[in-house]
Specification:
11 strands; 4-stranded mixed beta sheet; alpha/beta; 7-stranded parallel beta sheet
Length: about 400
C-alpha cells in the first residue's frame, strides 16, 4: 500500500479528452508493467534521484463537459490508433476509478457567477484530496485552446480581481478560472495549453502570496520542438535563416478548436516566438493550421526553411513531422505533474522557468534553445533531490 504522505493527485481540466485519457491509460499500463516509459523525460537517467512522486502514487480526477466514460473513451482511442489494442480491457479498473473522480465542469452562466464557479471547482478539488488522503494536488489544464484574452482592469492586481469577482463580474477566461481555483485550493498549477491560465498579473500575484509553483504554457510536442532544436543549429553555424514557413494539418478536438481564427491566433503566437528567440532576429514566414477531421488525433507539419551560407549562397531545408498528439503529450503531462508536485513539496513557488524545456512559450524563461533548456531542467531536477 503506497505511503499516504506521498500520494499525489493530478486534477485534469479536460479529463475526458484524448490527452487526459492517454495519461490515465498510460500510467495504468506503466504500473502494470504492460509498457515502458518511452517519452517520459523524468524516467531517463539523471532524474530518478529528484524525489518525484512514483507513478504508483498518482491519483487522477478532474472536470469535463463531456459525458463519455473513460473506459469508452479509451476504446475510441484504440479505434483511432492512439492506444494499443486490448489495453483498455487490461487497465479497465484504473480507467473506471479515474472516471469516478471526474465531475461536471462548473460553467458560469446566468445562475452561476465566476466567483461561484471558482468556488465549486475548489470544492471538488478539496473533496478529491480529502477522499484519497493526498499529500498534494497538481491542477493540469489540458482543455481546448482559448482565444487571446483582452486586457481588463481586474487583471492588474489581486485586489482588483477579487473585487470584480465579488461584484459578480465575469472577467476571467475558463483557463484562468481554473488557475484561480488551484490557488485557492493550495495546488500547484500546470497549463499545457496556450490559453491565458496563470498568465494574468493578478493571478501571478496571488500565486506568489500563496507560495505556489506554476508552469506553462503550451506543451512542445511536434513542429515547435524541431524549431527549438534546429534554430540553435543555424545560429551556431552562422547560417542566416531568411524564411521559415509551416503548414500544420490537425484532426480531433484540437484541430476543430483551432479552425476558429481567434483560437488560432493564440496558438500562432506561442509557435512563432521560438524562432526569433533562438535565431536572434525576426524571420519571414507564417504558421498555418488547417483542420482535417479525418486525421483524428494525428497531426502532420510540413516546413520549408530558406537560409544563406558563405558568400550569400541560398539553400533550403524541408521536413515533415507526423505524429500522434496524445502519445506525444501524455508522458510530458506526467513529467510536469510530478515535477510541479515535487517543487511544491520543496517549497519552491512562482513561475517554474526551469521547466521551459516542455513548453513553446514558457513562463519564467526567455530561453528557447531546446538543449539549453534540457540542461537547465536536469540541474533543476538534481536540486529537487533529498529526503521526501
Amino acid at each position: 500500500m503506497p505511503d499516504q504522505r506521498s500520494r499525489t493527485g493530478v486534477w485534469l481540466a479536460g479529463a475526458r479528452g484524448s490527452v487526459a485519457t492517454t495519461v490515465v491509460a498510460g500510467t495504468a499500463a506503466l504500473r502494470a508493467g504492460l509498457a515502458g516509459p518511452t517519452g517520459c523525460v523524468t524516467e531517463q537517467p539523471g532524474f530518478p534521484d529528484a524525489g518525484l512522486p512514483a507513478m504508483s502514487d498518482l491519483v487522477f480526477g478532474g472536470h469535463d463537459v463531456a459525458c463519455t466514460p473513460l473506459p469508452k473513451r479509451a476504446e475510441q482511442l484504440v479505434a483511432a490508433g492512439v492506444l494499443p489494442h486490448g489495453l483498455p480491457a487490461l487497465v479497465h479498473g484504473d480507467l473506471a476509478a479515474a472516471d469516478a473522480e471526474i465531475r461536471p465542469a462548473p460553467l458560469p452562466d446566468g445562475d452561476l457567477s465566476q466567483s461561484d464557479a471558482a468556488g465549486a471547482i475548489r470544492a471538488d478539488i478539496d473533496a478529491f484530496r480529502e477522499r484519497h488522503g493526498l499529500a498534494r494536488v497538481v491542477v493540469v489544464n489540458v482543455t481546448s485552446t482559448e482565444p487571446v484574452v483582452p486586457e481588463h482592469p481586474a487583471h492588474v492586481s489581486a485586489e482588483a480581481l477579487r473585487a470584480a469577482l465579488a461584484a459578480g463580474e465575469n472577467v476571467l477566461p475558463p483557463s484562468s478560472l481554473y488557475a484561480l481555483a488551484a490557488i485557492d485550493a493550495g495546488c500547484a498549477h500546470v497549463d499545457f495549453t496556450p490559453s491565458a491560465g496563470m498568465r494574468i498579473p493578478a493571478l501571478e500575484e496571488l500565486a506568489g502570496k500563496a507560495g505556489l509553483p506554476y508552469a506553462g504554457n503550451d506543451g512542445k510536442t511536434g513542429e515547435t520542438l524541431l524549431k527549438a532544436t534546429l534554430g540553435p543549429m543555424f545560429a551556431a553555424r552562422g547560417l542566416r535563416v531568411r524564411t521559415w514557413s509551416g503548414t500544420n494539418l490537425l484532426g480531433g478536438g484540437d484541430g476543430e478548436t483551432l479552425a476558429d481564427p481567434a483560437a488560432m491566433a493564440s496558438k500562432a503566437v506561442s509557435k512563432q516566438r521560438v524562432l526569433a528567440e533562438t535565431l536572434g532576429h525576426p524571420v519571414e514566414g507564417e504558421v498555418h493550421i488547417d483542420y482535417v477531421p479525418s486525421l483524428g488525433d494525428w497531426k502532420t507539419a510540413w516546413d520549408h526553411v530558406t537560409f544563406e551560407g558563405f558568400l550569400g549562397v541560398r539553400m533550403n531545408l524541408q521536413f515533415t513531422w507526423a505524429g500522434c498528439d496524445s502519445a506525444l503529450a501524455a508522458p510530458l503531462v506526467l513529467d510536469l505533474a510530478r515535477l510541479a508536485a515535487r517543487a511544491h513539496e520543496r517549497g519552491i513557488f512562482g513561475p517554474l522557468g526551469e521547466l521551459a524545456f516542455f513548453f513553446k512559450d514558457p513562463v519564467g524563461s526567455d530561453e528557447h534553445a531546446v538543449m539549453s533548456q534540457y540542461e537547465t531542467l536536469r540541474t533543476f531536477a538534481a536540486g529537487l533531490g533529498g529526503r521526501r
